[in-house]
Amino acid sequence: MAADEHKRCDKSRPSAVHAQRDIEEQERLRQLGGIVVHDLNNAMFALLGRTQLLKRQASDPELQQSVVNVYDTVKLLESLITKLHAACQREASSDERSNLRAAVLLGLRHALGTLPESIRPGGDLTLDAWLEQEVDHLPRDLFYDGSIVQVTTALAQVISIHRLRATNPIKICCTVRKVDDETRFDFYAEDDGGLWEHGVEPPSLLHGNFDLALLPLAAARRAIRDIGGKAALERAPTGLRSHLSFKVNHGLSLEQHGNRGAVHCADQHAPRTRRVLIADDDPSVRALLVAALESVNDEVETISDPSALLSFPELDSMDVVILDAGGGGIEALRKLRESGSTLPVLVASGSMVEGNFDESTRFMMKPIPLDRLDRELTLLASHRRR
Questions:
Q1: What is the pTM of this model?
Q2: Residues 373/376/381/386 CA torsion (nearest 10 deg)
Q3: What CATH number does the domain located at 275-385 have?
Q4: In CATH, what number does 98-250 get?
């Protein structure tokens, strides 16, 4: 399909598609600022050093004065670059731990939603049906040390390159592989857009390469480099292939493996079923949490009186407790810890709760965000296994 045909298709797409593309473009512009500042800063550092060296070596008074003038100009440029750097600061790295499968599903759903149907993978399947099928083989207990935003941003950026080139459905594959003692997630996408006339390295002022067509690659690479990730492009027989890769780890997860057929990309690593106790006096909260946890095959028990936590007969067999801070919940937690128990407890409250929680206790404001629940409980369980 020609580029003008793509544009005609895009006019009929929902506004959400254009909103997603705006997000991609904003991220590329932000990365452009970061690249420019980084490269200019390195160039200024080198220029300052050479100017100082020349100043020491020059013996002619007029030449010395000329060098001083150049040096002052370079220092002025350096101060301007410092201001640019303050405006283009990268986001601070987080200590989040995210579920791989959830991040890949979210990232691909957003990125592929921007594609015309003629180049979207999956054939006659709906997007959601194809996504579930494509990532079904990914172990549900795989995590990486970073935020979901990092991975979804990288996926959207590399797919945006193929979106502008493909004439037939883009080929996509997600795999997990063992490399020595390390487990890595690999994502590949390939189009049939023919010869790629650009380079395969991100733009750089220092290397004389500033092809704006490669900005999405720069944005993808910067998005996942804090999690040890890599992003690359390479020429393929029929077009262009992109590759994302980063380290992942197995961990106890709320999401459990279901029954599935042959696995074509990764070995199964099924964690045992998690047992969760919900202690909350609000029936609507209990119902919501039960539905969320049982939908992924967790074993869930509930009690309506948080103060009765210690009287629950199967308390010692639970993997984690979600405890309402009200209704005597905090007092019950205090008694639990005084008994020497290290049972992981996620304290939930509609207002801030004062107190020094140990590593077996975490706090979360109500309403509980279900997209964070998995990560919070996984972190709690990891402390108990140490």
A1: 0.53
A2: 170
A3: 3.40.50.2300
A4: 3.30.565.10
